[in-house]
Amino acid sequence: MSRCFVSCDRPTTRYTNSPYFTTVPLWKLSRKIGLKRVSSRRFLSAKRMKRCENIGRRDRNSALDGRNLIAQQKFDYFLVLDFEATCEQYTKIQPIQEIIEFPVVRLCGKSFSEVDRFHRYVRPTERPQLTPFCTNLTGIVQGMVDDQLPVTNVLSEFHRWLIERDLVNPKSGEKTWTFVTCGDWDLGTMLPSEANFWQLQLPSYFSEWINLKKAFCDAKGYFPNSLMQMLNDLQIAHVGQLHSGIDDVLNICAILKQLAKEGYQFENTSYLKKGVVKGQKAPFFG
């Protein structure tokens, strides 16, 4: 069987002196020997690709007309959430990590514009004094949390906020909505662990959400390491301070809208069952 080297790089002496080297253009050679065109999609491991499959789908009707229309979504609203919590550098804070910022922005599922927002700072009670590392990371200083309500009260306020907007126990017809987070930590680890510590029964609406990283993987073909990587890929300018909860939420909103403009239809990716995110082997608490 004859062999032929095909290279897109500049020829070197080693290969140009070889009887198997060809300078025929790649597209001509491909057509001549019957090769199919292969896309330059980024490589994904089989394990990661499997994780990204069947999360969402492309809405081709809105993506193919070239006008950058927003894909039709199955949810009336998206509630974008990003907690900030007490922390220490290089060690796990004891006895428990506590939420200190609770920001949620409600996006319209048709226009992806902001409808309204719920934003509270939260007073930690087990470790009320913020560490310098926590302040440097989040931009939250001690005075921003000292006079605030603890997490149990903030959760009650948030529930009332949902009721007032007919998102829970609706009076004017049921509306479909879901949470969106950048990763599974917020609703898969942080909130369940604190609820368990305070012996709180979380409402069922906290049990499923869209992990933006998984949705991005399904849309783009690779799993992003960070919020910044998604922004850079989509050529979206970063707004505010990284690890400020409300600023992170606004940046997540921008990514959601851009993916929808590119024809992506979002679906829930993550589910909490008995304190465990579906697919995880170890429970987060209890």
From TrEMBL:
Superkingdom of origin organism = Eukaryota
Reply yes or no: does the keyword Ribosomal protein apply.
no
Write down the Gene3D superfamilies for this protein, in alphabetical order.
Ribonuclease H-like superfamily/Ribonuclease H
Q: Which InterPro entries match?
A: 3-5_Exoribonuclease, ERI-1_3'hExo-like, Ribonucl_H, RNaseH-like_sf, RNaseH_sf
Q: Which UniProt keywords apply?
A: Exonuclease, Hydrolase, Nuclease
User: What Pfam family does this protein match (any one)?
Assistant: RNase_T
Under the GO molecular function aspect, what terms does this record hold? 3'-5'-RNA exonuclease activity; nucleic acid binding
Transport as a keyword of this entry, yes or no, is: no
Q: Return the CDD domains for the record.
A: ERI-1_3'hExo_like
The name of this protein is: ERI1 exoribonuclease 3 (inferred by orthology to a human protein)
Q: Which organism is it from?
A: Anisakis simplex (Herring worm)
Which taxonomic lineage is given here?
Eukaryota, Metazoa, Ecdysozoa, Nematoda, Chromadorea
